[in-house]
Structure formats: C-alpha cells, structure tokens
Amino acid sequence: MKTLFYLLTCGCFILAACNGNVGHNAAAIDTIKAKTVNGKDVAITFEEPTHDFGEITQGEKVEYSFKYTNTGKADVIIEDAISSCGCTVPEWPKDPLKPGQSGYIKVIFDSAGKEGYTQKEVSLRLNDGRGFQVGPVIRCNIIRK
Question: What is the pLDDT of residue 20?
Fold first, then answer.
C-alpha cells in the first residue's frame, strides 16, 4: 500500500511538472544558427522573436510581421514554415536573402473556438539541411465573447 501511495505521489509531481504551461520555458530563440552552405555560415536573427497581442476577443483574427535579418555569410532560403496549430498560418518570402538583408514572416492567428492564454510557435526549415527549428512565437489571452 505504501508503494502504491509513493508511486501515485511521484506520478502527480511528474504530471504537475509537465502540465503544458510553456509560459517562460519556451522562449523563442532570437537567432537561428545553422550548418554551413558551401563552407559559409547560415543564420537569421529576429528583431523581435516573440510578439504578445495582449487580450483579444474570441473569434478575432490577428496578424504580425516578424522582421528577420540574414546574419550569416551565405544566402538564406526559408524552405518551409509550419505552425504548432492549424489556427496559425505563416507566410514567408520564397526568394534567397543575401547576407545583411532583411525580410518579414507574417503570422496570422485565428482565435475562433479558443479561450484563455495561448502561445503558438512557428518552426522554420532553412536551406541548411538541418530540418525544422523553432522560429517566432506569438502569445495572447483570448477573452470569450
């Protein structure tokens, strides 16, 4: 009986630690550094890696354009961008960005059917062969109509 109590107590602590609240733990990275392309570094840096819309009304669509700069030494191509939810849609330029140049990734969030604090991440796949990496993050508090 003591063993069962001990296991249940440990399980509760583990579940509490993994409650899905990513408020301060999943801050977006401001620079995505990648492998080299033809011996040159590929990297982009976001001017503002996280945007907080504050309070929005349930059903409202909001958007924000994240400015990023190619801080590497090779051309950067964002090959793909995906979000952590179908309610969040990223739009990005498909053309190469030369070192030192800047571009924008627009993120559109639809709050229909959602309520409370929400955080959504956009993951980017660059032309470096490393796969998806966390990019910009949006946050908001959705107020029921």
Answer: 38
Spell out the domains of the chain, with CATH numbers in brackets.
28-143 (2.60.40.10)
**CA nearest 77: which of 45, 122, 44?**
44
CB contact at 8 A, 122 and 135: yes
Give average pLDDT by consecutive 10-residue segment, the chain, 145 residues: 46 39 43 56 95 98 98 96 95 97 98 97 94 96 94
Helix, strand, or coil here: 69? strand
Tell me the C-alpha to C-alpha distance, in Å, between residue 77 and each of 72, 125, 128: 12, 9, 9
Backbone angles phi, psi at 2, to 5 degrees: -65, -40
Q: CA 138, 108, 125, 27: dihedral to nearest 10 degrees?
A: 0
